[in-house]
Amino acid sequence: MIDPLITGLVVFVLATFIGFEVINKIPPTLHTPLMSGSNAISGIAIVGALLVAGDKNWSLTVILGLLAVVLATINVVGGFLVTDRMLQMFKKKDVKA
Amino acid sequence: MNFSDFLPSGIELGYLVAAGLFIVGLKKLGSPASARQGNLVAAIGMLVAIVATLLNQGVLNYQMILVAILLGSAIGAVMAQRVEMTAMPQMVGLLNGFGGAASALVAVGEYWRYMQQVDNIPLSETVTIILSVLIGGITFTGSMLAFVKLQGLITGQPITYGFQQPFNISLLITFLVGSGLLITDPHNSEIFLGLIAISLLLGVLFVLPIGGADTPVVISLLNSFSGLAASAAGFVLSNNMLIISGALVGSSGIILTQIMCKAMNRSLGNVLFSAFGSAKKFEDAAAEGSQDRTLHTIDTEEGAMMLGYARSVVIVPGYGMAVAQAQHAVRELADQLERLGVDVKYAIHPVAGRMPGHMNVLLAEANVPYPQLYDMEDINPEFDRVDVALVIGANDVVNPAARTNQSSPIYGMPILEVDKAQHTIVVKRGMNAGFSGVENELFYKDKTLMLFGGAKDVVSLLVTAVKELN
């Protein structure tokens, strides 16, 4: 059995390369939405939070986990919604109201 | 064989789908036409990841989790609705902080679980928990301080004190020593709490000496940290979903950080440790020879004539324009000029706003069509052929000293070459130096015309005057 730490490291390095490749091609115009969007993705900590908060019996672990779920959800929901709000405004030609 | 035997593999496959959706979503964020869809794709990826996680047999605490998710969603949705576009850097800063805090809490929660259940905490586990607490903690307090600074609750000036760096370094060494002790004695929770405290303190101390002009770099870097914090939490839980997503965000933040540093011609180390823009440093540079030179001023009627009868006008918006909330007036001016057949473009410097791409969002909000927005590299070769460059609330990013004056603190910084246009009109509130505290010789050139006043008032007057031209 390979140490999970090593497997994790392999995954981490490869994902970093993909990140560099994909994000390098994004034009400056979209850098703010990119940042808020990727910010929402970093809210993936919610997955870890759910696993930690999952125990049925109350303990400090569960309380910390639930707090983490709240914070990560704010991060995810706020991030994706505000990105959408911004991207809505990017228009080719203006639509006269 | 029953259903639950397949569940762990099913969850992993769900994570694979989610990670794929994140990558496709980010790729679609590469063009304004598909960006909105890309954001949606990424959001669906997140939903898949959450649902897959809830299927985990260890997750049983459904009621409380539902309450927590609803609470978080409500807060997040309200924040996203209410935030002003000018306040976007604060918003992203705050969200970075929450993400970092969540990651750190996951690690602390895991540590506590080990404390209760197993008598032996594996070495790799202790190391990843320490790393996760460190990165998450720094991200949390660093982002909170950046938020407070950007929101103007405390001064945006760099805050420095004696022995700042020796103190920070000794704190870091203390952290390393503490980590070593915890590794030899993982059950010593006092040491663990000490490490948490140091991490939180480090975040504050790291942002404290960084000035307002450098916030684009800090926000980008904290963005990267929030990703790395998620990755670190992924190492703690041996969860690939967290590791992959965190790595994507981490690399994205690093790229943006590099772009911002390059746009200011400074190294990351210089931004983090030099307390740039603290007023005392450049006093003498600003004082020299500014008195005996003449400024050419014009009024709004003359300005309107020049703009209206030009063939091509390039508008250079700076953060001063955004602060004055003059975006809509600027767009109206552009409309009027286009009515007269003038070719209007906008030139956007990478650090024009308070975060990467900020100015583009502010102009998009004012309904400026994005094809009219030009990046620095695209517009600079065109300035030779431009009749009038209209600089509104920008200073350092158009300062020719960056090209010519080797002794200038901003020497080498890439600028928008407005001085190459036939004429330059600078709309400016007064003769204050820019964020860097550096004098701008552009203002004293013969073909530069100064139009003093608040950006919004001046531009509105220009609009009225241009309307009268035919």
Overview of the structural elements:
The complex is a heterodimer of chains A (97) and B (470). In chain A, α3 (45-53) packs antiparallel against α4 (60-89). The model of chain A has no long low-confidence stretch (mean pLDDT 90). Chain A is flat, with a radius of gyration of 18 Å. Chain A is mostly helical. The longest helix of chain A has 30 residues, at 60-89. Chain A contains 4 helices and no strands. The longest helix of chain B has 30 residues, at 88-117. Chain B has a 6-stranded parallel β-sheet with strand order 3-2-1-4-5-6. Chain B starts with a helix and ends with a helix. Chain B has 470 residues and is an alpha/beta fold. Chain B has 18 helices and 6 strands. Chain B has helices spanning 3-28, 35-54, 62-82, 88-117, 123-150, 164-184, 189-207, 215-237, 240-263, 268-273, 283-287, 300-308, 319-323, 327-339, 358-365, 376-379, 401-404, 455-467, and strands spanning 312-317, 343-348, 373-375, 388-392, 423-428, 448-452. Chains A and B meet through α1, α2, α3 and α4 of A and α1, α2, α3, α4 and α8 of B.
